[in-house]
């Protein structure tokens, strides 16, 4: 399969026009005419992931988080981003990122479904006339449960060792906002929707204090923890009978000790 043909499929799954203006999605390194026989899918384009792709003789890497966000004037081996780019180029590995477009097109609904939300709408719609397209989801649980029970369900569904919880563990939870990745910017949206709890990652101390003061509980399942499922989902949904899709071995940079 040509790289451009695989790209067409990726952009059918997650249209690039969904991506935020500040984001950098699409083919970042490589040639659209390149032949692709083996793909490695990962959350991050880390040095370890690139080394796995080289070892497995992959022709393409697909990640959620882009390697390049800000414009680069030079690509050299003097910095870690340049070294990664050069390493991929030297081994003829194409590199594609699907970030906020994937958040909107797939991950919001998938994350909501994982915890059993119904009657969902976007936490932050991107279209004024369509409340179902946007970042995150707000919805209702099928039954009222405690904050502790919901935290345990999040651990189970997202395959996590632990989560951070803000709020009284015995509080009844019925309405839920969820945003994968770094979601403290959506605290206000969650409150406006009337959520009892926001499930997300990367919540800072003072934001947590502000949220609980306004009667919004928080389940911080981590940036990595709330997004890792994207890798397995994409590997399972690529329709590439003549291309081998592999899942990278990676882990959160944070370690529990």
From TrEMBL:
GO terms for molecular function: metal ion binding. Keywords: Metal-binding. Belongs to the GTP cyclohydrolase I type 2/NIF3 family. A divalent metal cation 2 binds at residue 64. InterPro entries: DUF34/NIF3, DUF34/NIF3_sf. It comes from the Bacteria. GO terms for cellular component: cytoplasm. A divalent metal cation 1 binds at residues 65, 103, 223, 227. The keyword Metal-binding applies. It holds the Pfam family DUF34_NIF3. The keyword Methyltransferase does not apply. This is GTP cyclohydrolase 1 type 2 homolog.
